[in-house]
Recover the amino acids of this structure.
């Protein structure tokens, strides 16, 4: 019954998780409650603050899982991709922890871990399957042949899907990050009220930059004619832009399904919380007989449970790294 | 050396030319900041400059990741986007000095978030949309 400690610090979130025999027993993301035992407040962004978060987060993850430090068999950590300064904190911590307890060290690719989050709960996809990873920083379609055998078959050439949502929100005068607000308004509006162009990008790659500009001109032109256009039509505008971003994603996945002949489709990343995307996938499941996998939301955004589960599968294969390991800001899936 | 230059283009195919013009204008002032509204074409222009520097990989927006790095033919290139920073302290938190003073090219989107952290010498690019789709580019050398 291997006990794995997972550490994530690739971007904003400091997170720690304990996985016992493939089951997640704790998944702590640094926030105010994590600091209660130690005092102090939780800072918001990036690397040096991971220093303040990491020990409280690990401490709480171990307590929540009701294990003791000496039960832990290996430490898995995010080696990349991400911000180098942020990755260094998690890497250094994991190395010292492993050295202190004399246990093996496991390096995990953050983008692979997002996909492996599908192996935390049932139902689990079977290999091979396709995964659409959509977040504020990424938009990828990955063909997953096995736990650690993955092929990047499509990616964004400019903005990520989550960023397209956030920037559209900004143009509508909504606060950052505005993606979730667009989703909220969209539920009340007509997705066919306004038409936006679908980017014509060959293959399975994505582009959202042209759509962003088209949306900017649309908002500006409408406001020229009617200064209170947005107040009057916010729900329809949000529903329409959300519909377009979602159809761009779904159409590429549809193309990937056709090209690969694989009809198991998983999603990962923070944008999987978007209700428009979820509905469209469930509709595709009915219409085109796909088998769709959507993980629990806490496993979609950046978290250490996915690092722990990825670490568990590497542990079973006996894939460890030595103390000389260093983080990688760039590391393809 | 000129301190200011201006171009106007009405066709995106002219962008490689402007990218080369910027590189020779910037010279050794390798920290280049980009000002312009959302949708003006900052990321698009930076993609073109990276291509001119021999980058073969995908140049995408670093809004979420804060900084992307690419391998150019001669050296590493750092591409920043400070759009989501709340204050300058957060730039310190990400270790911006390590990048800015590395001697490599640093292309910075949304520099208005870090007005006091720019180095003594830097190059500024201002991109503005003029009459329906055309773009005006201004290059400015700043020395303290």
């Amino acid at each position: 019954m291997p006990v794995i400690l997972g550490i994530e610090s690739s971007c904003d979130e400091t997170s720690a998780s304990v996985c016992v025999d493939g089951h997640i027993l704790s998944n702590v993301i640094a926030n105010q409650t994590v600091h209660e035992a130690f005092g102090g407040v939780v800072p918001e962004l990036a690397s040096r603050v991971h220093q303040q978060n990491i020990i409280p987060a690990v401490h709480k993850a171990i307590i929540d899982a009701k294990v003791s430090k000496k039960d832990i068999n290996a430490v898995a950590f995010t080696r990349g991709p991400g911000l180098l300064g942020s990755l260094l904190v998690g890497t250094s911590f994991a190395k010292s922890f492993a050295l202190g307890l004399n246990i093996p060290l496991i390096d995990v690719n953050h983008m692979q871990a997002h996909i492996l989050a599908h192996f935390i709960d049932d139902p689990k996809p079977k290999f091979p399957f396709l995964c659409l990873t959509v977040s504020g920083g990424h938009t990828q379609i990955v063909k997953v042949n096995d736990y650690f055998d993955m092929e990047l078959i499509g990616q964004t050439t400019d903005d990520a899907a989550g960023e397209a949502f956030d920037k559209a929100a900004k143009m509508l005068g909504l606060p950052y990050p505005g993606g979730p607000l667009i989703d909220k308004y969209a539920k009340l509006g007509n997705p066919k009220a306004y038409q936006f162009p679908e980017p014509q990008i060959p293959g399975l790659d994505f582009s959202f930059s042209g759509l962003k500009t088209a949306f900017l001109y649309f908002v500006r032109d409408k406001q020229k004619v009617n200064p209170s256009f947005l107040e009057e039509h916010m729900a329809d505008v949000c529903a329409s832009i959300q519909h377009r971003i979602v159809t761009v994603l779904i159409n590429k996945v549809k193309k990937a399904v056709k090209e690969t002949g694989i009809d198991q489709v998983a999603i990962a990343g923070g944008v999987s919380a978007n209700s428009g995307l979820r509905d469209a996938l469930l509709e595709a499941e009915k219409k085109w007989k796909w088998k769709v996998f959507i993980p629990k939301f806490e496993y979609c955004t950046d978290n250490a449970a996915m690092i722990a589960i990825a670490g568990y599968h590497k542990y079973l294969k006996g894939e460890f790294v030595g103390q000389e390991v260093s983080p990688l800001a760039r590391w393809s899936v | 050396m000129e301190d200011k230059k201006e171009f106007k283009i009405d066709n995106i195919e002219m962008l490689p030319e402007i990218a080369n013009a910027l590189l020779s204008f910037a010279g050794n002032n390798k920290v280049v900041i980009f000002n312009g509204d959302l949708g003006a074409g900052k990321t698009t222009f930076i993609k073109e400059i990276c291509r001119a520097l021999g980058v073969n990989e995908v140049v995408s927006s670093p809004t979420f990741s804060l900084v992307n790095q690419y391998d150019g033919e001669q050296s590493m290139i750092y591409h920043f986007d400070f759009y989501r920073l709340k204050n300058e302290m957060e730039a310190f938190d990400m270790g911006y000095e390590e990048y800015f003073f590395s001697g490599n090219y640093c292309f910075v989107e949304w520099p208005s978030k870090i007005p006091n952290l720019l180095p003594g010498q830097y190059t500024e690019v201002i991109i503005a949309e003029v009459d329906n789709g055309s773009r005006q580019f201004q290059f400015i050398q700043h020395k303290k």
